[in-house]
């Protein structure tokens, strides 16, 4: 089961993840807070948001980058979902 929510609602559900900024960067667009997205695993996303909140800033500033495969998977998922809501 999934929930269709706006970016504004998603931001309230996961306040420590910058969804609008992330999607704006990926697609090089300026998304509206009213843009609808599909949210799977709401509880999991809330836990990830809290984990980010509790992660020390010095860890976040480390020069690590996500693996290219992870970036490609995220871009593919976002591209596939775009326009199918």
From TrEMBL:
Highest taxon of the lineage: Eukaryota
Pfam families registered for this protein in UniProt: Peptidase_M13_N
GO BP of this protein: proteolysis
SUPFAM superfamilies: Metalloproteases ('zincins'), catalytic domain
InterPro entries found in the cross-reference section: Peptidase_M13_dom_2, Peptidase_M13_N
Domain (Peptidase M13 N-terminal) ranges: 1-59
UniProt protein name: Endothelin-converting enzyme-like 1
Organism encoding this protein: Heterocephalus glaber
Gene name per UniProt: LOC110346345
